[in-house]
């Protein structure tokens, strides 16, 4: 049986793991009997191992490969050996970066625009970002196929490289298989009439300050009962302290909840009971929480400068991330106008149905099968 070598070492955050788990799950099923997955990972990726189980073979790298430099060194020293050991006929990586020549076709999956968006990175990371942009350009020239998490990301890679990829497609992230059932169960949860939810890893480029200021304007303009829930971890303690000071300085301490990381049950309830989902990120290659919220019929207010408008479609309103007044107006309208809210809620549910796992992964399954069999399509896209 042919073997596909999958390098999962670059996955170090929950959203990247969610995307990879979903696509590998569908690849394992869709290629069953034709191609066997051989996954290179660290032992701490228990979720990925649980998802695939005996449907894949496993190679383990040291824990030190969580760091990008040591990971690059380990890959340089070991990938060719693993290709030979398993007789792999193709290589797949979700890092957005091609490996050194391995003598087999390489499929590069791109899901992180960090190095391509200045607002998403800190000044001290300038050298690392430069190296990544250089590596992205190299991948566009040498990879046999480039797979992009969104059209937004595809265009960002093309602008950086100044050229098109050899073969390319867009493969969106799919929602978890149980998501529709959980949303149906949450249908009976009453809405909190003026609750706004924001779910994300609360990094500085998520632009939480604009949301807080817009929320303050909503309360000042006739909705003192409004409530904002910020759910997700804060990887930068200094940024969290700054947002907490901003909340306190605006007199919002009693109406903004810093929920931190929440359980799956709490997250589902938050989506179901909130009136609006809002994330004004300056850099988003997809926006998984926004689609999860739409499954519950929760309209989205989000940034116009990233992938979320492409992904959320008619089930959301999109504003410039610096337009605090425009963000506040959109939030206030969805709190006040029942007819408009119902219209967007229905469109949100309809849009979320596009992201069934089998549907979004099918182009990727077809691409891998074609490359392995020597007949990959020249260009494809999401259905």
Question: Which tags fit this structure?
Answer:
six-stranded parallel sheet; alpha/beta; disordered C terminus; 45% helix; 383 residues; seven-stranded parallel sheet; 2 domains; globular; Rossmann fold; single chain
Which helices and strands occur, and which strands form pairs?
Layout: E1 2-7, H1 14-30, E2 35-41, H2 46-52, E3 56-60, H3 68-86, E4 90-93, E5 106-110, H4 126-142, E6 145-148, H5 151-161, E7 168-170, H6 179-185, E8 195-199, H7 208-220, E9 227-231, H8 237-249, E10 256-260, H9 264-273, E11 276-279, H10 288-295, E12 300-303, H11 308-312, E13 316-319, H12 324-336, H13 338-352, H14 357-372
Parallel strand pairs: 1-2, 1-4, 2-3, 4-5, 5-6, 6-7, 8-9, 8-11, 9-10, 11-12, 12-13
Helix pairs in contact: 1-2, 1-14, 4-5, 7-12, 10-13
**Average pLDDT taken over every residue:** 93
Low-confidence stretches: 376-383
How many helices does DSSP assign? 14
Which CATH class of the largest domain? Answer: Alpha Beta
Biggest β-sheet: strands ordered side by side in the sheet = 3-2-1-4-5-6-7
Radius of gyration: 21 Å
Gross morphology: globular
Largest sheet: 7 strands, parallel
Assigned CATH superfamily of the largest domain:
Glycogen Phosphorylase B
The end-to-end distance, rounded to whole angstroms, is 29 Å
Helix amount: 40-55%
Look up the CATH topology of the largest domain: Rossmann fold
Total strand segments: 13
- Based on helices, strands and strand pairing, what is the structural class? alpha/beta
How would you portray this structure in words?
It is a single chain. With 383 residues, the chain is of the alpha/beta class. The protein has two domains: 2-174 and 356-372, Glycogen Phosphorylase B (Rossmann fold, 3-Layer(aba) Sandwich), CATH 3.40.50.2000; 179-354, Glycogen Phosphorylase B (Rossmann fold). The chain has 14 helices and 13 strands. It has helices spanning 14-30, 46-52, 68-86, 126-142, 151-161, 179-185, 208-220, 237-249, 264-273, 288-295, 308-312, 324-336, 338-352, 357-372, and strands at residues 2-7, 35-41, 56-60, 90-93, 106-110, 145-148, 168-170, 195-199, 227-231, 256-260, 276-279, 300-303, 316-319. It has a seven-stranded parallel β-sheet with strand order 3-2-1-4-5-6-7, with helices on both faces. The chain has a six-stranded parallel β-sheet with strand order 10-9-8-11-12-13, with helices on both faces. Helix 1 (14-30) packs parallel to helix 2 (46-52), helix 1 packs across helix 14 and helix 10 crosses helix 13 (338-352). The radius of gyration is 21 Å and the shape is globular. The two termini are 29 Å apart. Residues 376-383 have low confidence and may be disordered.
């Amino acid at each position: 049986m042919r073997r596909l070598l999958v390098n999962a070492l670059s996955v170090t955050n929950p959203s990247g793991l969610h995307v990879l788990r979903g696509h590998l799950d569908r690849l394992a099923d869709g290629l069953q009997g034709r191609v066997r997955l051989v996954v290179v990972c660290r032992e701490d990726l228990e979720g990925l191992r649980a998802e695939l189980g005996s449907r894949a073979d496993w190679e383990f790298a040291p824990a030190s490969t969580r760091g990008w430099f040591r990971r690059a060194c380990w890959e340089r020293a070991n990938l060719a050996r693993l290709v030979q050991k398993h007789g792999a006929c193709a290589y797949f990586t979700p890092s957005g970066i091609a490996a050194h020549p391995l003598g087999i076709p390489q499929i590069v999956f791109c899901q992180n625009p960090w190095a391509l968006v200045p607002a998403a990175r800190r000044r001290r990371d300038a050298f690392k970002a430069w190296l990544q942009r250089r590596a992205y350009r190299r991948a566009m020239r040498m990879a046999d196929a480039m797979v992009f998490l969104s059209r937004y990301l595809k265009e960002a890679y093309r602008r950086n490289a100044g050229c098109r990829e050899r073969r390319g497609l867009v493969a969106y992230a799919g929602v978890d298989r149980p998501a529709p059932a959980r949303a149906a169960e949450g249908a009976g949860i009453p809405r909190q009439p003026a609750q706004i939810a924001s779910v994300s890893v609360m990094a500085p480029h998520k632009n939480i300050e604009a949301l807080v200021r817009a929320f303050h304007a909503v309360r000042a303009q006739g909705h003192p009962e409004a409530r904002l829930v910020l759910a997700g971890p804060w990887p930068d303690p200094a940024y969290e302290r700054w947002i907490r000071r901003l909340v306190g300085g605006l007199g919002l301490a009693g109406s903004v909840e810093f929920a931190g990381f929440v359980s799956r049950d709490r997250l589902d309830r938050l989506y179901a009971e909130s009136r609006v989902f809002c994330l004004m990120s300056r850099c988003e290659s997809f926006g998984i929480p926004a689609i999860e919220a739409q499954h519950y019929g929760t309209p989205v207010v989000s940034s116009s400068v990233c992938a979320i408008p492409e992904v959320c479609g008619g089930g959301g309103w999109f504003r410039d991330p610096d337009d605090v007044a425009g963000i506040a107006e959109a939030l206030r309208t969805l709190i006040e106008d029942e007819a408009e809210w119902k219209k967007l809620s229905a469109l949100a549910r309809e849009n979320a149905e596009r992201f069934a796992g089998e549907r979004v992964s099918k182009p990727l399954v077809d691409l891998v099968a074609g490359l392995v069999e020597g007949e990959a399509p020249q260009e494809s896209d999401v259905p």
